[in-house]
Amino acid sequence: MVQQATIQLMDKSKYEEANLDLLKNLINDYIQSSNKIGQQVDWKYESASFPYNISTKKLDDQDALYLQSNDSNDPRYNHFVVSVQDDKNIVITLLPNSTYGDKGKANEFCRFLAQKVEGKLELFNKRIMYFYKR
User: Would you say 83 and 59 are in contact if contact means Cβ atoms under 8 Å apart?
Assistant: First the structure.
């Protein structure tokens, strides 16, 4: 299941260019917000909301963030990749053995990223969502 979703930074986006440091910061924001939700409902929500370990790998001669499941015994999640293309596009890629659970988490994560950077999101199913001021 190789599919891609893209977040395009527009003229009125919050950031002018994207890089891996920005993505790492936004992932940390995502994890911290899920930790706060977990505290509010008194449940270990962070392990369910973001079940991945993050590492940096090369993808097509380009640095990318590789998100791999932190529980190898959980068949719901495998991995997906987040990378930056042309300093204006954030690309989320589902790899050939990514699961439908990965696709669901990647969709949720795409919407979070697009809201934070105030960009244009093209989802895996080619639908478009606008999060910037028009």
Answer: yes
